[in-house]
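for the recovery benchmark. tokens below, seq after
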């Protein structure tokens, strides 16, 4: 069949774009189906043939590791972190906004990490951390602590504790408020920010 004038065939995806498309298709499937998601479902969601997955990733385990790493990518987190508090100078408002931002991200992150944890635990590590987690998880937490510490450091004179302590406290409150193992009532961003900024005792 002769191509119609004015119609052009779509350019083939680069290897990097194809990889990103596959990883991006996996995340919502993991949230919905957990580790039981199949490569057939992934291929359908990504709009590719199932065999294409294995031309990009050697096996399903490698794909799941890539999804986990992408989900907590420090560079992406840094961009979204900065955007969440862009133009805000007030410490309480910064804390409220970044808390809401972290709560939104952590629900997605935890759903993915729980789904792929079986794959994570089977990975060989050249220099395994003492707690057995892959290095990219440590890198992500370190980057988050650094970003939070810098945020609080800009308001050092308003704090009663060192910026690093404030950063760790906020991260613990956020993670604890959404961790499924703890099985606690969810706290809102305003509630978490209020506890961090004002404590739990009555003034005076």
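predicted aa per position
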């Amino acid at each position: 069949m002769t191509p119609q004038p004015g119609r052009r065939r779509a350019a083939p995806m680069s290897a990097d774009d194809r990889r990103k498309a596959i990883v991006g298709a996996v995340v919502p499937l993991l949230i919905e189906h957990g580790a039981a998601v199949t490569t057939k479902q992934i291929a359908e969601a990504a709009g590719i043939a199932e065999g294409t997955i294995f031309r990009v990733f050697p096996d399903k385990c490698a794909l799941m590791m890539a999804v986990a790493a992408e989900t907590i990518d420090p560079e992406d987190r840094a961009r979204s972190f900065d955007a969440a508090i862009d133009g805000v100078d007030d410490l309480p408002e910064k804390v409220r906004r970044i808390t809401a931002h972290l709560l939104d991200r952590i629900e997605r992150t935890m759903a993915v990490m729980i789904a792929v944890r079986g794959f994570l635990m089977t990975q060989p590590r050249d220099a395994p951390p003492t707690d057995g987690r892959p290095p990219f998880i440590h890198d992500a937490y370190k980057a988050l602590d650094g970003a939070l510490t810098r945020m609080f450091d800009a308001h050092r004179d308003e704090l009663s504790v060192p910026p690093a302590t404030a950063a760790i406290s906020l991260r613990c409150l956020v993670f604890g408020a959404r961790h499924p193992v703890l099985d606690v009532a969810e706290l809102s961003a305003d509630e978490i920010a209020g506890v961090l900024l004002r404590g739990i005792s009555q003034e005076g």
